[in-house]
Amino acid sequence: MTTAFTSNCPIALNDYPKVLLAHGGGGRLATQLIERLFLQAFDNPLLAQRHDGALIDMNAQRLAFTTDSYVVHPLFFPGGDIGTLAINGTVNDLAMCGARPRYLSAGFIVEEGLPMETLWRVVRSMQQAATDAGVLVVTGDTKVVDKGKGDELFINTAGIGYIDYRFNLRPSEVRPGDAILLSGDVGRHGMAIMSVREGLQFESSIRSDCAPLADLVLSLLDEGIQVHCLRDLTRGGLASALNEIAQAGKIQIDIDETEVPVTEEVRGACEILGLDPLYVANEGRFVAFLAPPDLERALQLMHAHPLGRDAHAIGTVTNGSPGLVTLKSSIGARRILDLLSGEQLPRIC
Amino acid sequence: MTTAFTSNCPIALNDYPKVLLAHGGGGRLATQLIERLFLQAFDNPLLAQRHDGALIDMNAQRLAFTTDSYVVHPLFFPGGDIGTLAINGTVNDLAMCGARPRYLSAGFIVEEGLPMETLWRVVRSMQQAATDAGVLVVTGDTKVVDKGKGDELFINTAGIGYIDYRFNLRPSEVRPGDAILLSGDVGRHGMAIMSVREGLQFESSIRSDCAPLADLVLSLLDEGIQVHCLRDLTRGGLASALNEIAQAGKIQIDIDETEVPVTEEVRGACEILGLDPLYVANEGRFVAFLAPPDLERALQLMHAHPLGRDAHAIGTVTNGSPGLVTLKSSIGARRILDLLSGEQLPRIC
Q1: Residue of A nearest to B243 (CA)
Q2: A160 touching chain B per CB within 8 A
Q3: Closest approach of chain B CAs to the CA of A135, in angstroms?
């Protein structure tokens, strides 16, 4: 795998095996990096304008605009790398707005000395992920910081999506009685990172769930499912997402733990590390709050999509205590599912 | 000044004098940082949606979209800081596309242990710069990396601007005979940074030229000046910008060094450090390539604007050797002004 990438790297690795400070400057080396590596990988007419920004002819009345920086450590993990994360994470934020993701920017902060081939592998992953998600990387920037002043590679992406729908997808639209759908099993991304970071060997390796969710989300919206709010389950996991919505929407959320899918591998790894899978980050999962009559049809649509096969109805919205999230455990007891104060797993995305 | 900011910092500095890893997590501390610091500073209806992205109702057919990461070291320098830079740099990239800057994203990568008050000072600078430039920060993200894995603070901004004009501002529109206008004196930003970094004491302190250029650019476009291409003079300075345009536009550029304004302070500091002011970064200067009949009127318009008072016609475009930039020095000799191979001043922006 490494060999295949190396042989394709369009920067002469004999001349430049590592990224130099000059690759982030305004000179020849920076131009070479942009032309041979980035422009070639993300080739499209908007990027090829090579302007200070991309010029976009709009065909929508309404946009979604979002940004995320990615500082995941390590850069590569089972099921993805910082590049797939940087594309899918921003694509998913747009999808959660009900937008059709279209254009991404990419800002690279590279630590001096990063192997050029590592940068190239990440760029290739981004290229593949962008193709899979149907988005174009249309503008970008590279900065190089001195060795010891960064950590290999940080990536920021910002994204623009078209909103074709007049839905107002937001916590304040959530209503008592709404059904809550979870798109699949939880905890895989965080545990995939932790397994590499801690050098844990599980019986079968845990792969990140990192995936672009826009297609699945739009399959619901296109069919007229009355979705009131969407939220992807990133940092802080399912528990944090539900708490945020309960607080912002001033509603109570009651969840049934037995309906939340967690694989045996993730459950076992969480037990070893003393973590609760409900708080572990995901990169390809979301919750949808929807009008109860649409629940069965929404489940059917999700089950028909590769990324929604494990979708479950996990609970309901009530008008009990605004901001409260409760969890009924497998033994039937109901407890409060609180927001964590600190950081369970730093640098997970 | 420091005291004034501290007394206003909406995070209790007794409880949280420094940024913790948890401030970048999915929990309570992260929520507090977002609510008390970022949402308060950048307060606007789009940001207040608190969605995964900002929802923007468009009233333009054409957009410019750009991004830049800012890794300047040190964070604070005479005439600005990383925050003013992060707003103005992206505003200026949009302006160079002929766009009216409107919406910005902000992604913060904070090193664990950064004084909370430093973050607050930077955010306040961004708030002021955004107000001055007439843009809204509508979406954002914060990541915290472990101590020793960053360098205090990196900021990425992406920007969206509306293009009201059907001008095609780009190097391929530049024509032999075009006049070249420089908006003011060069080299101040780079030398302001270097003076702090190297601890140099000059007779009078050199202040960065960091400023938002959109208003000045639009004053030309609004008056119908036939501008063919614009370029701001950031990393690599005037010399690099001219080389890029000569290459992309396949034209020759001839510059008269005596027409390029450089202050005595900048010239002196450059001599001490062995630098050429033509290669030193600026953050509030640009070159405009325009149809010769519009030159005088363009100069008048620029001289009437506070940021264009020192504007000069510095040279012309010829159809000599495509990609070549020549400089006539004060003693009358003409030499080639080349693209630097490496990085003259790392981490200048």
Answers
A1: A27
A2: yes
A3: 14
Q: Cα distance from A137 to chain B (closest Cα, Å)?
A: 11
pTM of the complete model beyond 0.90: yes
| DSSP 8-state code for residue A294 | G
**Contact of A239 with A279, CB cutoff 8 Å:** yes
- Which H or E run includes B165? none
Listed range (A9-18, A129-138, A155-164, A201-210) with the worst mean pLDDT:
A201-210
Rounded Cα gap, residues A283 and B97, in angstroms: 35
- Which residue would you say has higher pLDDT here, A13 or A341? A13
pLDDT, average across residues B131-143: 94
At residue B261, what are phi and psi to the nearest 5 degrees? -70, 130
B143 contacts in chain A (CB < 8 Å): 69-71, 154, 347
pLDDT higher than threshold 70 for residue A271: yes
Residue that the structure tokens 């009345």 belong to: A61
Q: Which residue reads 């798109």 in tokens?
A: A183
Neighbours of A292 (CB within 10 A): 14
Tokens representing residue B96 in the block: 């160079």
Is B69 in Cβ contact with A108 (below 8 Å)?
A: yes
Helices and strands (H and E) in chain A: how many: 11, 14
Distance CA(A340)–CA(B22), nearest Å, equals 10
**Burial classification of residue A227, based on how many CB atoms lie within 10 Å of its CB (0-12 exposed, 13-18 middle, 19 or more buried):** buried
Q: Which of A20, A55, A107 sits opposite B69 (nearest CB)?
A: A107
Q: Does the beta carbon of A71 lie under 8 angstroms from any beta carbon of chain B?
A: yes
Closest CA to A288 of A210, A190, A184, A162: A184
pLDDT of B1 reads 33
Cis-peptide, bond into residue B293, ω within 30° of zero:
no
Of A53, A61, A159, nearest to B66 by CB-CB distance is: A53
Cα A337 from Cα A103, distance rounded (Å): 37
**Inter-residue contact A71 to A193 (CB < 8 Å):** no
- The reply to whether B45 touches chain A by the CB within 8 Å rule is no
b/e map B254-284, b = 16+ CB within 10 Å: bbbbeebbbbebbeebbeebebebbbbbbbb
CA dist., res. A27 & res. B323, Å (int):
14
- Interface confidence, given as ipTM, is 0.92
Contact between B62 and A55 under an 8 Å Cβ cutoff? The reply is yes
Q: Please, which residues bridge with residue B227 across strands?
A: B290
Q: Which residues of B touch A346 (CB under 8 A)?
A: 21, 24-25, 144, 146
Assigned token pair, A297:
């049809």
User: DSSP 3-state assignment of B84?
Assistant: helix
Interface of B with A in 190-229 (CB under 8 A): none
CA A106 to chain centre: 15
Q: How far apart are CA A30 and CA A142, in angstroms?
A: 8
Bridge partners of residue B289, in order along the sequence: B180, B229
Per-residue pLDDT, B4: 39
Residue B302 token pair: 């620029």
Question: Which tokens is A318 given?
Answer: 């009530």
* Residues within 8 A of B (CB atoms), A 227-246 only: 231-232, 234-237, 240, 244
Note whether B154 contacts A27, CB cutoff 8 Å.
Answer: no
Interchain CB contact of B29 with A (< 8 Å)? yes
Nearest-5° Cα angle at A103, B164 to B41: 75
pLDDT tens-place string over residues A180-200: 999 999 999 999 999 888 887
DSSP state of A321: S
